[in-house]
Amino acid sequence: MGTSFGRGGATQSLQDMANADCVILMGGNMAEAHPVGFQWVSEAKSRGARVIHVDPRFTRTSAVSDKHIAIRAGSDVVLLGALINYVITNEKYFREYVVAYTNAATVVNEDFRDTEDLDGFFSGFDPETGHYDQSSWAYEHAEGGHVDTPGHAEHGADQSARAAGDQHGAGGPALDASGVLRDDSLVHPRTVFQILKRHFSRYTTEMVEQMCGITAAEFEYLAESIANNSGRDRTTCFGYATGWTQHTLGSQFIRTAAILQLLLGNVGRPGSGIMALRGHASIQGSTDIPTLFNLLPGYLPMPSVGTGDTFADYIAGIASPTQKGFWAYARAYTVNLLKAWFGDAARADNDWAYDYLPRLNGPAGTYQTTVAMLEDKVEGYFVLGQNPAVGSSNGRQQRMAMSHLKWLVVRDLNMIESATWWKEGPEIASGELRTEDIGTEVFYMPAATHVEKAGSFTQTQRMLQWRHQAVNPPGQAQSELDFFYELGKRIRERLAGSTDDRDRPLLDMTWDYRLDEHGKPDPESVMSEINGYYLTGPNAGKNLSSYTEMADDGSTAGGCWIYTGVYADATNHAARRVPNEGSGVAQSEWGWVWPADRRILYNRASADPDGKPWSERKRYLWWDADKKRWVGPDVPDFPVDRAPDARPDPAVGGAAALAGDDPFIMQSDGKAWLFAPTGMVDGPLPAHYEPQESPVDNALYTQQQAPARVLFPRKDNLDAPSAGEPGAEVYPYVFTTYRLTEHHTAGGMSRWSPYLAELQPEMFCEVSPELAAERGLVNEGWATIISPRAAIEARVLVTDRMRPLTINGRIVHQVGLPYHWGVGSDAVVSGDAVNDLIGVTLDPNVQIQESKVGSCEVVAGRRPQGAALPALVRDYQQRAGLTVETDNIRVTPRTGAPTDEAPGAGEQPGEGHR
Hints:
By secondary structure, the protein is α/β, with parallel strands linked by helices. The protein contains 27 helices and 27 strands. The strands form nine sheets. The protein has a six-stranded mixed β-sheet. Strands 3-2-1-6-7 form a five-stranded parallel β-sheet. Strands 10-11-12 form a three-stranded parallel β-sheet, with no helix packed on it. Strand 18 (622-624) and strand 19 form a beta hairpin. The longest helix is centred in the middle third of the chain and has 16 residues, at 480-495. It is globular.
């Protein structure tokens, strides 16, 4: 969404979903996984909205929707692409919105070649790296040539290594977009609109039937529901969760939905947008102030070797000062962060202590770290609020990796499996590990629960809410703030007097938070630092009220620029709790939303180019000619006094360059992107590829899997053969994972509660009556599910909620698996972990794993015990002929073409499949 709109967060509030005329829920089970937020979907339905749930399973969301449409896991781009084709072909798109507010009229340079030209590839594919040189995707400049990317021109391989897609969470991709060539008639063959039209032309109703298992009647119902509830007077909203993100092309799933919503005018308006449903209370917060290897707070990129060696290089690579919008001021946001972290040690003469920051020299995500552990390159590991022994893909690999560590720190509420694998994990039972041989020293640190600590959390709609402490934590349990503050103090005491340059960042860090009467850091003092404050001048010591007050001369400091304003006037706005969120349409008196407390992002687009509401029914923000400002119930996501007819010189850059009809103020050209000339490492437009493991042949292109996916070809991470390959019949079924209301993620909270454990006491699998008959499965009996990585057992639930689908002319069965159980004696209930089945292959944009679809075998009865269990897994691997090359060849072999070559720039689409 960051590449499409300019920010990666949800475009609207949960409450605004009640204003939708149609709600499409895909890639998630909102009623079950987000039950509190789902009340607003229920409210929309009570007002007459149509609610449609598209999901492999019939769930609690399906039960309260107007219609459930079953889909094959991993085929969402086919369905969404066909909806785009339907909207364009039937001229259902909102033309005035599209021309004014998107890059539909922008002309792409003549070197670009589409998947239609190159049979599943875009121009610039490099088979040696498996990634794209994106230079041919560029816009055409009005004076000839290409529109450049500022700073160092990076290859897609380097961008993938640092998960560059994550870095557009608060500002779109950098581009010197001041002189783009446009054709507002949309007839030029190289306009984005014409490229889009041609690209999705093969995504037809028939293709949806063939690849998704959705009938023509179901597709027509969905397409008409969306089209008829979009336009001037009506709006449709989408909601998604990890069912979209956790795929090798998960980022492109979301991009496809973004394109559809933009074509229909469903962004920036009441009841529109895309709700990115975050599961845990502060998952949004953990990317805003990140727990990710490639980000600094506020989605500033982590510096990388080669592109961020100097402060000047780093800033030049983030944004161009000549591009439109507020991301042009990234230098100020960076300087303020460095001042907040290093105080007086951050000065102009040392580039604000920029060299204190580490440099990435490659990917350093969870799964790369796991491999590094196995290679004895990592000595110690902190596990905080995670349970990788159960919750990460390829659980066996995670546990084996931890056995290579010298020390492991686990902070959690309970003695989770990541703290006990060394004495009672599956590998202990199988004999693959022996406790007495494991050298890992495990430290368990009890953590405070959410009611035992104070602080903010940032939930799914970008909202910061304050949590007040209700009771003190028991015994030695600590909050994260207390733990890390004390740990920091002790490290600094140990290093006091050090003359080693590598210790200076730790010693120069500001670590002087206000303490309470118990000598513990006051959480509000941390929020004050995050918000930012003046360092010099008449306002010295006063909190900033807006990120526009941040200076790049060291006179202000702030720990996360997008959160500036949450502590304005030294007032904790995250603690606002006006009943019913206030009386206004925006319901803005509960908590505080980044950025600048805007409840609906891009809300300038809720008015037409002249500043008038598209309709009275969807009136939200409009231009008041008398007051000469934008008015409405929300904070304008636009320069408040910029008139609709303003046309400043775009070359001036920054906010001053935004025209009166540029509502996407964090994009370099002020427009939303249907076509992404930069920002996506695997293609400027979405294209369907099959999952890493799939018993289905890709009917759209010869290329089977996403060519730029991140591969981990290892003997402990083997993959099932795909359709048409020898051994594919050994793993004939598709499995997909999901969560339950009664349990929370890997179960670290819920499986220790006897009340929740009683409601869902055992690991189970959902299978259709047809699959049960085919494999001799009995309801409430046992089944063993086998993948190339592991075999687990589960109770059988035979149910019509899982429906066989006809795909490419044959029946495909899907197996549903909840992911909440783990093996151990400390929890009230235990069971085999479904994530043991899952392999590690990643989306190249954000380095997220493909854990929502895989291939498996299902047999009746319980799994073997002891050494017989890994023997069973090996037997299936041998029967399928698995090697590390299986599914790990970049380019699907073509008739008459070598396997390591992609089509050249002039090659035409191939006719033959594998």
